Structures are given as C-alpha cells and as structure tokens.
C-alpha cells in the first residue's frame, strides 16, 4: 500500500527535518542551535540575494567584513581581546551555514579568524594581541596569511622568502602566492626563513616594498580574493616579529584550525546543493510526474543524504573532541579528506538532477562544485592528507 504525500518544495524546515534521518539535530544544545539559527538568518539576508552576481562578476563584497564582525564569527572560538569566545562546535556550525551561502565567504572568515587572528592570538606578544585582535574581531581591520609560495605549496619547508637582521630591524625579501584577502587587508602574517629557522612577522600591507597582485580569471572561488605578494626589501621593526613562533609549528597550528573549519564548512555547500536538487525535483515535472517520483532521482537524493549525515556526524565528533582538548591533527586530516571529497560528489550529483538548468548561476550546485575544487586543494591537498594518514597508520613518512 502506498500513499502520495509529496513534500512541499517551499517548506524548507520540513525538508530539513526529513533529511535529518539520524536525528543529529537532537545532539546539539539549545545554545548551539541558536548560534546556527542566527548565522543561517544572516546568510539568508546578506549573502544569498547577491552571491550569484558576485560569483559571476568575480567580486568579493568587502562591506560584509564589519557585518560579520557584528555577527560574532571573526575569531569566533578565540578567547579574550574582544574575541567572541564561543565553542569549537558553535564555530563549526557557523562555518557550515556560511559555506551554505558560499565557500568564498566562509574562506574570508577562516583566513581572518583561524589563520591571521589565530596566529596572533597563539604566537604573538600581549602588545600585538591588544593592538590587532579587537579591531580584527570587529572587522575593522582585515588580515591575511602569507605561507604558500610560487614554488612551495604542499612543501612549505621549501619556502624561499627570507628575513635577515639589519641592526634592530628585519629586511624581508621574497614572494608568496595564493594568499587570500591581501589586496584589501591592512595586515599580513608572513612566514619566512631566517638564520634561526622559520619565523612569523606582522607586515602592514602599506609598508614600502610590499607589492600585491590580485589573481584574476579564476573558474572557482570567484566571490573571494586570492593574491600574489612580493617583498622588495621590506623593512620591519623588531616589534613585527611573532615572539613565540619558531619553526613550521607556527603556521601548521594555524592550518590545523583552518582545516577544522573546512570539515564543517563543506557540509554546508553540500547541504545547500542537495536542498536545491530536492526542491527542484519536487517541483519539476517530466512525463506527467515530478522527477522526484522516479527511482533514479530518489537514489541520487538518498545517496546524498547518507553522505551528508555521515559528514555531519564526523564534524560534530571532531568538534566535541576539540572542545574537550582531545583532538589530534591526524583526525582533522581524516575529516578534511573525507568531507571535502564527499561534498564535491554531492554538488556534482545535485547538478545532474537540475539538468540543463543546473548550469545557470540562479541555482547553487554548479557554483558550489566549482568552489569545492579550490577547497579540496587549499589547506592540504587530498594527497597531503592521505600521506599524513598513511604515516599515522604505518609509521613511515612517505613525503620524500
């Protein structure tokens, strides 16, 4: 016996409730759900109306920075110095909702909060924290993070940017590439080789000899900013040095934080792609029936929800461990590798349900699929995270 109680494609709350097959929502506290609701409302009001146009024009809406500061998502899980001091799970939920809007917007929050602010918070002096973090948390100052170089992506130990002593000052020379936000930032955290190993420096973007070139003609992350930096004997005072960061441990700690946000964020892009496909399949009719009534369409929807539920549980598990102080970086590598890989598959499959209409930017899956190709690459490629896990399993480093 069957019944026809077709779900309303416009009742998004009912669709989301039905899609939470495992009842994951029940695992969240009231405070966590309130944070999610607040960020989701911001995305609906401030990001969804403009994102298709921003992506099409290759435009990052910098005017969102103070609004995101007021929302409390910049340096969200950092303590003190004007930072929001929220839990890791709340930050994860915020990252998920922001990336449901667009990966580029979530990337801004990650570069600002996890990479730039996180480096200053963990490795800076109290004076540096007092000077920069409150304004960055409000979105009044934008920061960027300079690690990757034209010839050193997956192997940051091969960086050639160099800082040498000159009296009490430092002279910075070299280049960085694929650096988010630098063309609109006031401050960049730059990692450079020194006679004492890798060190971190706070470099004002208006310093003489600091040159920024914005990377154009991208097929992905178009509502985001990526740049190339050139340092032509940039003179920095002794106070620019992050005093507590020595070696690659400094930048790697920031990358770990950013990777954690990705584990959650990509599930937002995947969920939005799935929901777009589900709503479309309920409304679109072919052969006298909604395409949601066909077995092949239902198989695609089911496969997407299975991976969404698994990915959400994985992200929540890592978040709980992070809040408990028991999270290991190798666990983040597993999460980043798995969730990004599945998110791309979901976005691509969702696009097929939309047929030819799916290539139009009024529908989100193709934009998410394109963006996720970048997310798959940055903060560690699939290959890098595979080798991190391989070393964990075998005890043998296979990087060289």
From TrEMBL:
Catalysis performed (reactions): glutaryl-CoA + oxidized [electron-transfer flavoprotein] + 2 H(+) = (2E)-butenoyl-CoA + reduced [electron-transfer flavoprotein] + CO2
PROSITE patterns the UniProt entry points to: ACYL_COA_DH_1
Superkingdom of origin: Bacteria
An MF annotation (GO) of this entry: glutaryl-CoA dehydrogenase activity
Keyword Transit peptide: yes
EC number(s) recorded for this UniProt protein: 1.3.8.6
Protein name: glutaryl-CoA dehydrogenase (ETF)
Record's keyword terms, sorted: FAD, Flavoprotein, Oxidoreductase, Transit peptide
Top EC class of this enzyme: oxidoreductase
GO terms of biological process kind: fatty acid beta-oxidation using acyl-CoA dehydrogenase; fatty-acyl-CoA biosynthetic process
Lineage: Bacteria, Bacillati, Actinomycetota, Actinomycetes, Micrococcales
Domain Acyl-CoA dehydrogenase/oxidase N-terminal span(s) in chain numbering: 29-140
Domain (Acyl-CoA oxidase/dehydrogenase middle): residue spans on this chain: 144-234
Pathway: Amino-acid metabolism; lysine degradation; Amino-acid metabolism; tryptophan metabolism
Coiled coil: none
All residue ranges annotated as the Acyl-CoA dehydrogenase/oxidase C-terminal domain in the record: 246-393
Pfam families, alphabetized: Acyl-CoA_dh_1, Acyl-CoA_dh_M, Acyl-CoA_dh_N
Keyword Ribonucleoprotein: no
Co-factor requirement: FAD
Family: Belongs to the acyl-CoA dehydrogenase family.
């Amino acid at each position: 016996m069957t019944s026809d109680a077709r779900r309303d494609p416009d009742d998004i709350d009912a669709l989301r409730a039905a899609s939470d097959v495992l009842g994951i929502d029940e695992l969240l506290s009231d405070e966590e759900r309130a944070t999610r609701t607040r960020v989701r409302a911001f995305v609906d009001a401030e990001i969804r109306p403009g994102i298709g146009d921003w992506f099409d024009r290759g435009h990052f809406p910098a005017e969102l920075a103070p609004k995101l500061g007021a929302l409390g998502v910049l340096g969200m899980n950092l303590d003190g110095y004007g930072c929001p001091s929220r839990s890791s799970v709340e930050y994860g939920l915020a990252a998920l909702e922001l990336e449901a809007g667009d990966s580029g917007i979530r990337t801004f929050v990650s570069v600002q909060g996890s990479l730039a602010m996180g480096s200053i918070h963990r490795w800076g002096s109290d004076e540096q924290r007092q000077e920069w973090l409150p304004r960055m948390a409000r979105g009044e100052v934008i920061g960027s993070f300079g690690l990757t170089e034209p010839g050193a992506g997956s192997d940051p130990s091969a960086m050639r940017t160099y800082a040498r002593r000159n009296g009490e000052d430092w002279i910075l020379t070299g280049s960085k590439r694929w650096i988010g936000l630098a063309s609109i930032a006031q401050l960049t955290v730059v990692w450079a080789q020194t006679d004492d190993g890798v060190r971190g420096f706070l470099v004002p973007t208006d310093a003489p000899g600091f040159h920024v070139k914005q990377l154009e003609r991208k097929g992905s992350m178009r509502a985001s900013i990526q740049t190339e930096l050139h340092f032509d004997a940039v003179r920095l005072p002794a106070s620019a040095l992050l005093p507590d960061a020595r070696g690659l441990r400094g930048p790697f700690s920031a990358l770990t934080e950013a990777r954690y946000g990705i584990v959650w964020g990509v599930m937002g892009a995947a969920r939005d792609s799935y929901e777009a496909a589900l709503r479309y399949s309920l409304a679109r009719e072919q052969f006298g029936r909604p395409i949601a009534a066909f077995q092949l369409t239902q198989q695609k929807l089911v496969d997407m929800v299975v991976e969404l539920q698994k990915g959400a549980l994985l992200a929540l598990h890592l978040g709980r461990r992070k809040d408990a102080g028991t999270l290991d970086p190798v666990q983040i590598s597993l999460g980043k590798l798995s969730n990004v890989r599945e998110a791309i598959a979901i976005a691509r499959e969702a696009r097929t349900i939309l047929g030819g209409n799916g290539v139009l930017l009024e529908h989100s899956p193709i934009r998410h699929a394109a963006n996720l190709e970048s997310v798959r690459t940055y903060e560690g490629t699939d290959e890098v995270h595979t080798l991190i896990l391989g070393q964990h399993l075998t005890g043998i480093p296979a990087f060289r």
